[in-house]
Amino acid sequence: MPDIPPTMKAMVLTGHGGLEKLEYQDVPVPRPAAGQVLVQVTATAKNNTDRKAREGLYPTKKGEMTSFQMGGKPTLTFPRIQGADIVGRVVALGEGVSEQRIGERGLLDFNIYANDRTDINLTPDYYGHGADGGYAEYVVLPSDQFHHIPNPELADAELAAMGMCSYQTAYHMLTSANVQAGERVLVTGASGGVGTALIQLCRIIGAIPYALSQKGKAKALLDLGAEAVLDRSNMDTFVDRVKAETDGKPLDAVMDLVGGEMTDKFIDAMIFDMNARSTYPRLSIAGASGGNISEILWTRIYLYQVQIFGVSHGTREEANQLMTWIRDGQLKPVLHGAFKLSDLHKAEEYFVNRGSNYLGKIVIVPDAQWLEHGQPFAVEAGG
């Protein structure tokens, strides 16, 4: 691999715990195996899953501290380089990969798939969790999952902000609930990466998105495509405010990233007039930022025939469709700003303590790439 150094800078996760477990180190540059490409990383979007995996916040039983392991055994082993939504350029090839790929800019489909099926993904895992990711100067990736996105109008940082961790999760929430054109859809956590993706995707498929967020973010969310923005600070009048925005009609579906005590109120907004419905109430849930336990009467679920869909990641088919929409310019980046890789601790603190002006994604740029790919989008606290 000519012109490729033997070592690189990387932010290495050394175990479950706090930010002290993220260490900026020199590590060997990986070598691509058959069917893989070596990518020089220019930008990687930060996701909440980075923090949750680091802190062991993916329990499937009460009281446990772990990362998820749907395939039956842990795949997050240490040391690990996190970072799922990777953008960069192909600089070396494994056996069987076309030489034409050298120099291509691409975006990663972040999943580690268990098999070749395109329509289902039962044991989700991802780069940055079950294999090393993009918080480094180089990374090896499957050639068929590193999708060429040449669009010159998109800076690398902007393209990373459109990464599959948010967009594929959002799209799978919609497809799981079979959301159709004309349906009224509540998007909770609307200002985050998945939320802003949901608003855009609803408009692409013809659904009508209603955003739940802070009042100060209303204009930005309306500009992005939300039909209306409901202030989450007063949930006591939530159903009445939904009725006011929908001419008294119930929501058809809810895309829930919040959980906790709000979930019951979201169900209220779908079932208050069953005679006005033409489909079953549907709840897709892919997050629990408001609490991991919700108290719900099961009689409400089965008597009102509420369909609940748990969503984690998505399928190859959905990733391919999203890549097509990105190339066609139908999806737009919502980039908040960039931090240097060496400042990842600051980026994590900024993310956790973000204020009312926060909208969209943070990206992490290797220090060696900073002037070209990071500085134009620098967050003041990190740049």
TrEMBL record:
List residues of the Enoyl reductase (ER) domain.
17-364
Superkingdom per UniProt: Bacteria
Q: Indicate what this protein is called per its UniProt record.
A: Alcohol dehydrogenase
Q: Which SMART domains match?
A: PKS_ER
Report if keyword tRNA-binding is assigned: no
User: Which UniProt keywords are present, listed alphabetically?
Assistant: NADP, Oxidoreductase
| A Pfam family it matches | ADH_N
